Automatic annotation (TrEMBL):
Protein name from the UniProt record: Sugar ABC transporter substrate-binding protein
Gene3D superfamilies for this protein: Periplasmic binding protein-like II
Segments of this protein annotated with the region Disordered: 28-57
PROSITE patterns: PROKAR_LIPOPROTEIN
Skewed-composition ranges (Low complexity): 29-57
Lineage of producing organism: Bacteria, Bacillati, Bacillota, Bacilli, Bacillales
InterPro entries referenced in this protein's UniProt entry, alphabetically: Bact_solute-bd_prot1, SBP
Amino acid sequence: MRKISTIIACLIVFSLVLAACGGKNNNGASSSPSASASTPAESASAPASESSDPASPDITQVKATISIYYPTPDLVEKRALEDDKIKRFNAVFPNVEIVKSDWQYNPNEIGIKMGANEAPTLFNTYATEGKFLAEKGWAADITDLYNAYDKKDQLNPILLDQFNIGGKIYGIPQQGYVVGTVVNKKMLADKGVAIPALDWTWDDVLNTAKAVADPKKGIAGIAPMGKGNEAGWNWTNFLFEAGGEIQKVEGGKVIATFNSDAGVKALDFYNKLKEASVIPADWALGWGDAVGAFAQGRTAMVIAGPDGPLDQGLNQGGYKPEDLVVYPMPAAAAGGKHTGVLGGDFLVINPNATKEEQEIAFRYAVFDYFSDKGLASVEENIKARKAENKFFVPPVIQYFKQDSEYGAKVKAVYDKYDNVYQYSNELMGLLDGKPEAQFNTQDYYAAMTNVIQEVFSKKGVDLKAQLDAAAKLVQEKFYDQIKVQ
């Protein structure tokens, strides 16, 4: 387990969305991700002699077309930020055409996209996919671009390590999270239910859910996700809290271990939630369904990276910051760790792109990183939200080191506005992040989703038998095909 409580404790609200980064005051033009880049002045000053090295091309004048990940239509504010970034990028790279891609990363589609050469030049993905994409050859090795990047030492190692595969870099960190539980404090208060302490346990979750649930009115106490791979992802937090692991590497082999006593304990807790009638009657909820139910006041608690439910609850559900509170994942018992899955969002460069396209894509990805103009763009976004009576919800973990000079600049901006959601110091001190499994994580999640659906839909399920069957499936179909060097 990677213990990051002390690291995350210093995050507080230094958080920033993916658009806060870049060079200094020139929109990233001075950053140097490639050793081949040179300024026009440098090129002009090179003596024209046979003994001199040929002048390196000015990358800002290269004519190219790159396709980029573009936020979904529902993310209006993020689209506005991206449009502003494109405009500023083209001011520095006037000959680059930016094509907005509406494709959102899907592990079941990436192979088809790569095979048909339809994947964007720069696409989004998540923390579980680093090793998978690297081994399949679907993510470019950007180690040279990373090593030449003058801000590389300021990137957050908590996130960067997720795409450091065998000492090579395959992804650019954007933002991260430790899974927590977002609680609708107003719903609890309206029913006279005591607000649990942040240092809570599984029993506290169950008792709180029982007290606030009203099945006849369609009100759930908690809405664990029950369909899609997110169901297995939600449950894995409880596996970790119970002291379990997804897999282990032994003798060059990957071995499934989630069918352990800890796994049975975690699955039994899900069974208790079902038997207590505190989950939605229609429990087959994906991420959007569960978070939507939370924003609509149809469940008092939801398990996720905190910024998503907060954003929807505040900006779509009409709640106020004092109505919603972020909790760490509950400890299995008093005194235990509040372990949540450590995940994040990354950008990956298409290995089929030319070297010039890859460099331009890298420069676009980090264009606003550490830049005053990037920070100014975010501040304008905060102001625009305030004018519309909306809230700005930062991610929990950012691409930059939290104790850096840039982190202080971010905090100073956030502190100026009362519509920026503030994570509590106590929460940050309790968070304990554990990285997702290194091998075939999405396949494991899918297998566990089937198990969870059995538990939620039937009575008297043999929990150990279900876990054993899932472990056997994952082992034989996926893990046995892996040879670990």
